[in-house]
Amino acid sequence: MLESRKYITGFLFSGIIANFISSLLFYIQSYILEISPFFSAIIAQIFALICSYLFNSRITFDKKLSNYGKLCYFSYYLIAIYVVAFAIANLTSVGIPKLLSWLICVLLATISNYLVVKKLLFKVK
Q1: 90 pLDDT above the threshold of 90
Q2: Are the beta carbons of 120 and 80 closer than 8 angstroms?
Q3: Which residue in 10, 22, 47, 79 is deepest, having the highest Cβ count within 10 Å?
């Protein structure tokens, strides 16, 4: 139980840092540079993905993935990034504010990402 709490805390810390970077970049691109929410979300999340991998592999799970594991990690997240960006674009198209759309989608993605990263990619029980 204590080890599981360590993983959750580390993953959430990693997620907070990554999402701070992502939200800052999303805000700058979407509101200041007026890039579409879809592309803003993709670009911002790619930067967050790199930060997330570095934190999770070195701090949270203290495991470095093999090259195949890294390929799976980045492939999973690239698919997740597209799904989140698509969902954000859909929510904003029906009038939900950009940042609220981003928050809703990122919160839902965080839960599924934790389960996939922990159980499938880092193979932690």
Answers
A1: yes
A2: no
A3: 22
Domain ranges (residues) in the chain: 2-121
Is there a contact between 61 and 118 (Cβ–Cβ < 8 Å)? yes
Global pTM value:
0.66
Question: What are the Cα distances from residue 41, in Å, to 17, 76, 84, 106, 124?
Answer: 16, 16, 8, 10, 29
Give the contacts of 85 (CB within 8 A, at least 6 positions apart).
Answer: 37, 38, 39, 41, 42, 45
Given a contact cutoff of 8 angstroms between Cβ atoms, the answer to whether 98 and 92 are in contact is yes
Kindly report the length of the chain.
125
Instruction: Measure the CA–CA gap between 13 and 101, rounded to whole angstroms.
Output: 22
Give the integer Cα–Cα distance in Å for 125 and 119: 6
Q: Is the pLDDT of residue 2 over 60?
A: no
Q: Compute the distance between CA of residue 76 and CA of residue 88 in angstroms, rounded to an integer.
A: 18
Please list, in sequence order, all residues whose beta carbon lies within 8 angstroms of the beta carbon of residue 19, skipping any fewer than 6 positions away: 48, 106, 110
